[in-house]
Amino acid sequence: MTVYKNSSTPNPPEAAVKVAFLARGRGTASRPDGRYLAHRRETFDDGWNDAGDEDGPRPETQLLVDRARSVISYNASPDVPFDRSINPYRGCEHGCIYCFARPSHAWLDLSPGLDFETRLFWKPDAPTVLRTELAAASYRCAPIALGMNTDAWQPVERHTRLTRQILEVLLESRHPVSVITKSALIERDIDLLAALARDGLVEVTVSITTLDDALARRLEPRAARPARRLQTLRRLHEAGIPVGVLCAPLIPALNDHELEAVVEAAHAAGARSAAYVVLRLPMEVRPLFEDWLATHAPDRAAHVMSRIAQVRGGRANDARFGHRMRGEGVFAELYSQRLRRLQARLGMGRMRPSLNTTRFRPPAAAGPQLALF
To answer: Are the C-beta atoms of 16 and 291 separated by less than 8 Å?
Structure first.
């Protein structure tokens, strides 16, 4: 069983407790406490030892409402080619063990582990709020990045259709948008994306971590299979939508050898830009990833962590601008050289789309009042 212990100090990221059941189909079976909680959970044998616990039911996904006063988030990061973004969801059902957004669940007093994958928050009023923000007299148009923290087309989107409603507002206002996803569900919205593409208002980037099905199933258990993502990339390209590939994350000594294979396969499917991001292990992500290594790759766990340290200045993570995405040192420079050679050989560019901002027109304000003209 699990008990709660009071504590006057925040929980260290390493404080984790295994859930009582085997979390089948999930990225992790750990539920580390959020670092802002005033208690810490520990397991102990209470003598009951329920025989059925280990093979109990799969943890169900809970969808909770997140009421938002604004949906556009602004940033001044020099590491990303956008200054504003929209995230329809908090948490992500894809269950990618490496996801850099996991620590954000601690802000909700929830676990960055299993809670991040199973306790999701959506913003049902996001389309209405977005319409109000875009209609404001003070708003100045610049490309919006859609779904940067968590995937905007994760499985719950099939039922909520929230991302599609946001795209409808962006299309109505002719607002430029860039997208990154690893979900085949984006094909449902090809009609909207193609309409945006005709005015130079969209670029879609498909994230592909590996071409190895077995590895992908363990790293990102509820995301689309690698071959399915390539198929999605091809279908978007055939619909006239500019597409690129993001190799993310590159995990030293685990999947970094696949960089050329992934980019070449994506190029054959229609990708015209390519980029990569080196694995990041902020806050609670490090112990979750180390636990994953011990479970799924125990023979190379020490080597992977050693190589990570070599591209992170001797640490497991480096949050400095200019370093967190690419790393540093010999191996980081090799990654950069390999991508540059690929781009030159295949005629591919970087993920820096120049989207059209001249077509923007403020959407009609939400509400019953009609426009005067």
So the answer is: yes
Closest CA to 10 of 39, 42, 30, 31: 39
Helical H runs in the chain?
114-118, 126-135, 157-160, 162-172, 190-197, 213-219, 226-238, 259-268, 285-296, 301-311, 330-346
Domains of the chain: 2-346 (3.20.20)
β-bridge pairing 144-146 and 177-181: parallel
CA-wise closest residue to 160 among 132, 193, 125: 125
Exposure on the CB side of residue 103, measured as CA atoms within 13 A: 16
Query: pLDDT band at residue 365, thresholds of 50, 70 and 90?
Result: low
Report CA torsion sign: 236, 238, 239, 243: positive
Residue 21's alpha-carbon distances to 26, 40, 53, in angstroms, are 12, 20, 5
CA distance 101 to 105: 8
Average pLDDT over residues 338-352: 87
- This prediction has a pTM of 0.83
C-alpha distance from residue 347 to each of 270, 314, 326 (Å): 12, 35, 22
Q: Is the pLDDT of residue 71 over 80?
A: yes
Residue 357: name the closest of 205, 248, 234, 200 by CA: 200
State residue 367 phi and psi, 5-degree precision.
Answer: 130, 175
Rounded CA-CA distance 21/29 in Å is: 8
